[in-house]
Design a protein that fits this description.
120 residues; three-stranded antiparallel beta sheet; Alpha-Beta Plaits; binds copper (II) ion; disordered C terminus; alpha+beta; 3 strands
Length: 120
């Protein structure tokens, strides 16, 4: 009986520990072009559970620090897609993408030759 009780206690504490909210840092590839994209992506992640979010216009990598007790990484992908930007795990709806300004169209336009600082 005592052994059973200890086993149960161990199991309960393991489950409790497993669900403990932890701060996770993730690197997510987000498709986009310019400073306007950066502002849009970071604004989309200005919400509860996300501590910091910073998108690099050069590498197209988003560094995000979030609370895994409040949201999942997939939800972060979905928030970005809702703002009009594709990730490798979530795709923006065509009608959302179509509303982006020209400089932000990353799917069918190659902006790599544009040197203007705001449109890299
Ligand atoms: Cu843009």
């Amino acid at each position: 009986m005592k052994t059973v009780l200890i086993s149960i206690l161990t199991l309960v504490s393991l489950v409790a520990f497993g669900q403990k909210a932890t701060t996770i840092k993730a690197e997510i590839k987000v498709y986009g072009n310019c400073g306007t994209c950066k502002a849009r992506i970071e604004k989309a992640l200005d919400r509860t559970g996300i501590k910091t979010a910073s998108w690099n216009t050069e590498t197209k990598m988003l560094s995000v620090v979030y609370n895994s007790g409040k949201l999942t990484e997939q939800q972060i992908h979905n928030f970005i897609a809702e703002a009009g930007h594709d990730t490798d795990k979530a795709k923006a709806k065509d009608e959302t993408y179509a509303k982006l300004p020209y400089c932000c169209l990353y799917r069918d336009h190659d902006h790599s030759g544009i040197i203007d600082g705001d449109h890299r």
